[in-house]
């Protein structure tokens, strides 16, 4: 069976640079759509069947590209948005190649991986390489804020799929792919108290800040490191002036869990913190955003296949379980074999030193491409 020619790491880096230098903060739909449009043009010219789902709620569009074929498809999904604001390239994180490292905002999380997916599908079509199954490629606009508009298209594509591949960054310091992830919950707590003069009539006030502080300690106590459950409260806010008993306060809450029942339990407890007592009213919104991705025998088999392919391309591919969530959480929860972390090696996701190890571009992309070609 012929294999797709991916090209050299130098060639991939040259085109990836164009993606990185096109800044795509999640909050700027027009900027994200600019990169969506570039990918759409290339994929359409290569012969993909294109569906572009218009963005809603201030987010960009979702691009769905399909290759010809019959039967359950292989889905590959990556996001184009980043956490970096416009001007980051000019002010603090310019594109640069420093030895083995290529730097730039979003290059590691996850423009390199999304470019892998795009490039693989484009070249399979251009070179007319046969695949065992049709491919569905999704390029999405809002993963960095929980995939509020792209979750539904991802789940629709995955529902009848043979497998899902997620080229999020390789991790663990050793280029590992990901076979399990924690589930993620996000909540907002708002506390309403009663304002009063902090000196003249303190007793008439009800401090929202004090009430919030007590709830934060309750939330913190839910952490169970041995069981894999963590909670984190940040940011927090409250009060107006030092001499005013604060009538309002609030916080955001992040939780991570390893099983669906544990997520349901934590969600129930956190939402149950809402209520009203002694002049204090507490409201809590939110819930579990991403279900856990649990390694199953089917995921392990998919990993074994990927590791064998990686060995043929000259490197070992270890596996890991990761605390952060991705769109792979959604697809794994549907029971579809999902392999994550198939992007490039590097470090510094969401950090000023974000970079990839650019010489790994070709072998890593070739592994993803061969999976797309050969999954039966």
TrEMBL record:
Keywords: Carboxypeptidase, Hydrolase, Metal-binding, Protease. Coiled coil: none annotated. Pfam families: M20_dimer, Peptidase_M20. InterPro entries: Bact_exopeptidase_dim_dom, Pept_M20_glutamate_carboxypep, Peptidase_M20, Peptidase_M20_dimer, Peptidase_M20A. Residues 179-267 form the Peptidase M20 dimerisation domain. One of its GO terms (molecular function) is carboxypeptidase activity. Gene3D superfamilies: 3.30.70.360, Zn peptidases. PANTHER family: ACETYLORNITHINE DEACETYLASE, BLL0789 PROTEIN. This is Carboxypeptidase. It comes from Roseomonas fluvialis.
